[in-house]
């Protein structure tokens, strides 16, 4: 079996996060090229992408991350009357973003195999349920693609947000032949010791373990999932299973590719121990 890499493209990287449902097609084209290059180097790719402006804004407004809220009062938006309709709309909008991702891959002659989580996964967090068998077979040129989504949740909440950062945990740990996990993130080189706007070249944490403090922006006014902190903690969980985990600046394609290939690169290596 060929070896594989799991990569997460942050939603903020592939969309304009402040404006509803706007993909960044240029970045998608460049990222798709890294996937193609990786496969040329005999490494298969399992791709997970985030939501950015296709998921967070509407999910935040309708508080979908909190589950069904029968007593909460919401004003309708331009597409939805209630939370249930918002669940369906966000699912549709994620499929729309996914179509942009897949088109970028197809333009590089790759064959995406799409796995929308609301069709096969339930519950949220890194121990979500759902059979990963669908990701096992992978012929050359195929790319398994999945993404953060609104999924059904057992019990009272009824639904919730399953982040791509949770999907990568089970994909990296449970799928056969996975060598490493890469997070391609927007605007920063990795985890930083100081807030990004104050950071100089020297403030990058090159090897991070969970007791090291870092400063990241978590736009809680926009995000319904955990921002960079979630990636760090999920990354160290994966690293504890002996899988290499790297976080790199997703705007620098040579870094993204080298991280996927396991070559030394500027970024943060996520570890689970001191
Ligand atoms: C969020 O997924 C999914 C929805 C809001 C529907 P992620 O947590 O993977 O998304 P990003 O990377 O933060 O945008």
Cα end-to-end separation: 33 Å
Stretches with pLDDT under 50, minimum 5 residues: none
Tell me the helix content: 25-40%
What's the CATH superfamily, by name? Acetylglutamate kinase-like
The profile of the biggest β sheet is:
8 strands, mixed
Which molecules are bound besides the chains?
Answer: 3-methylbut-3-enyl trihydrogen diphosphate
Number of individual domains = 1
Give Rg in angstroms.
18 Å
> Assembly state here?
single chain
**Annotation, overall tally of beta strands:** 10
What percent strand? 15-25%
Please explain how this structure is put together:
The chain has 274 residues and is of the alpha/beta class. The chain has a single domain (4-270), classed as 3-Layer(aba) Sandwich (Carbamate kinase). It has eight helices and ten strands. The chain has helices at residues 11-14, 25-40, 56-61, 83-106, 117-120, 164-174, 227-239, 253-261; strands at residues 4-9, 44-49, 111-114, 142-147, 149-152, 159-162, 178-185, 207-208, 244-249, 268-270. It has an eight-stranded mixed beta sheet, sandwiched between helices. A two-stranded antiparallel sheet has the order 5-6. Strand 5 and strand 6 (159-162) form a beta hairpin. Helix 2 packs parallel to helix 8. The longest helix has 24 residues, at 83-106. The chain is globular. It starts with a strand and ends with a strand. The chain binds 3-methylbut-3-enyl trihydrogen diphosphate. Residues 10-12, 50-52, 55-56, 59, 90, 94, 148-150, 161, 163-165, 224-225 line the site of 3-methylbut-3-enyl trihydrogen diphosphate.
């Amino acid at each position: 079996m060929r070896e594989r890499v799991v990569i997460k493209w942050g939603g903020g990287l592939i969309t304009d996060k402040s404006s509803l449902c706007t993909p960044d097609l240029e970045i998608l084209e460049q990222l798709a090229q890294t996937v193609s290059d990786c496969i040329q180097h005999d490494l298969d790719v399992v791709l997970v992408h985030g939501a950015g402006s296709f998921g967070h804004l509407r999910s935040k407004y309708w508080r979908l991350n909190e589950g069904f809220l029968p007593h909460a009062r919401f004003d309708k938006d331009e597409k939805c009357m209630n939370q249930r309709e918002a669940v369906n709309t966000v699912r549709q909008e994620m499929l729309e973003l996914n179509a942009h991702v897949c088109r970028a891959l197809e333009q590089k002659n790759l064959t995406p195999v799409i796995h929308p989580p609301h069709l096969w996964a339930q519950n949220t967090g890194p121990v979500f349920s759902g059979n990963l068998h669908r990701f096992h077979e992978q012929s050359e040129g195929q790319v398994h693609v999945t993404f953060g989504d609104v999924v059904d949740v057992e019990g009272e909440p009824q639904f919730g947000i399953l982040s791509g950062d949770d999907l990568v945990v089970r994909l990296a740990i449970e799928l056969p032949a996975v060598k490493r996990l890469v997070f391609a993130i927007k605007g920063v080189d990795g985890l930083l010791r100081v807030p990004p706007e104050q950071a100089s070249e020297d403030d990058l944490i090159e090897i991070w373990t969970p007791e090291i403090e870092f400063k990241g922006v978590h736009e809680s006014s926009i995000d319904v999932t955990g921002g960079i902190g979630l990636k760090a903690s999920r990354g160290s969980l994966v690293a504890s299973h002996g899988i290499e985990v790297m976080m790199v600046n997703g705007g620098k394609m040579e870094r993204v590719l080298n991280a996927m290939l396991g070559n030394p690169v500027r970024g943060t290596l996520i570890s689970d121990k001191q």
